[in-house]
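Retry 2 of 3 after timeout on previous attempt. Resubmitting structure tokens to design endpoint.
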């Protein structure tokens, strides 16, 4: 593997000194970029983009070519590759998002769930290896997965963005069945992330998109405890350097102190929490990633500049901050506004590292 030319992102995750605050964007390879839309049209479908290492490499690199101020790349894939490999039949309906042909609602179906052969996900690992080679050390590559709880919501409900009543009914009436889903998924995710690391991922992130839908006790039992298990099972070093891990629960600011104890190197924050207050709450246990509201990128360069400055000022002096959006960039974002955000981070952040 090529020597890393820009390791600012990895240093920040390890709370080591950096000259500026590194930045990347969740969903930075996506529909807001015209070049991505062209690639998707050529590929024929979103799943074809994900399952072709050539296309996955192409769209992973696109934002880096457009935005030289990005400090990290993230594998182009989808969290739902895991339940798809578990035999649930992932498909996408235009305008409605991901769905599954089969759902886990009956006890017999749940009990049959097993850790899949990782060979079913080889296209992901091939993409990681190809992206690393193509990057040639420009910036680090992030691998990722969904959390067991978030993946389970899709596996039970059959789609995302629901009221979660079906899975919550199972959680309260038959927690043993939900724990079987979560444990099987956690063991799958450990193998999945470790295979990404072996293929070349230099940091990994766990997206707990729906953890915020849970009550306090349920979050600890059904979400956080399984992410803790995954972090404990990860390969910690590869290519002669540490492979840091990031955990992100959307709507999870209530549990920052508990998240900081699970062994991850960094916590992602959504835009609902003040990053300075979050820093006080977690102390020096973890780095923080976030947390600009993605909707700000629909405004103006001047407004973006001001809000970026606010986030940086709130975090304050010192290291251990990776600038990011509080969730994925929206498809309606003008590409020039994303550039304005990146420029503002570089311009304003250096003073906090002197």
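Retry 2 succeeded. Sequence:
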């Amino acid at each position: 593997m090529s020597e890393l030319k820009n390791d600012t992102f990895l240093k920040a995750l390890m709370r080591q000194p950096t000259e500026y605050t590194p930045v990347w964007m969740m969903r930075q390879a996506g529909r807001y970029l015209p070049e991505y839309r062209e690639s998707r049209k050529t590929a024929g479908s979103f799943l074809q983009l994900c399952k072709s290492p050539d296309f996955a490499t192409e769209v992973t690199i696109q934002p880096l070519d457009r935005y030289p101020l990005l400090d990290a790349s993230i594998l182009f894939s989808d969290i739902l590759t895991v339940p798809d490999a578990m035999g649930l039949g992932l498909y996408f309906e235009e305008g409605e998002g991901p769905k599954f042909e089969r759902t886990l609602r009956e006890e017999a179906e749940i009990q049959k769930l097993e850790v899949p052969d990782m060979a079913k996900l080889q296209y992901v690992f091939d993409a990681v290896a190809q992206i690393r080679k193509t990057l040639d050390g420009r910036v680090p590559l992030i691998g990722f997965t969904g959390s067991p709880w978030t993946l389970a919501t899709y596996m039970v409900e059959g789609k995302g963005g629901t009221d979660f009543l079906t899975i919550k009914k199972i959680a309260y009436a038959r927690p043993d069945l939900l724990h079987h889903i979560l444990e099987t998924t956690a063991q799958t995710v450990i193998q999945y992330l470790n295979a990404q690391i072996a293929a070349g991922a230099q940091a990994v992130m766990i997206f707990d998109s729906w953890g915020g839908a849970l009550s306090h006790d349920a979050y600890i039992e059904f979400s956080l405890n399984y992410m803790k298990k995954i972090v404990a099972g990860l390969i910690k070093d590869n290519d002669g350097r540490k492979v840091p891990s990031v955990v992100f629960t959307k709507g999870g600011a209530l549990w920052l102190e508990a998240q900081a104890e699970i062994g991850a190197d960094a916590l992602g924050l959504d835009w609902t929490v003040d990053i300075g207050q979050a820093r006080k709450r977690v102390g020096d246990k973890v780095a923080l990633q976030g947390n600009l509201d993605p909707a700000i990128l629909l405004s103006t360069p001047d407004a973006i500049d001001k809000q970026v400055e606010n986030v940086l000022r709130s975090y304050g002096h010192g290291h251990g901050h990776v600038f990011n959006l509080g969730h994925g960039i929206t498809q309606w974002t003008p590409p020039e506004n994303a550039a304005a955000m990146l420029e503002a981070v570089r311009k304003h952040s250096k003073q906090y590292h002197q």
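Attempt log closed. The longest strand covers residues 141-146.
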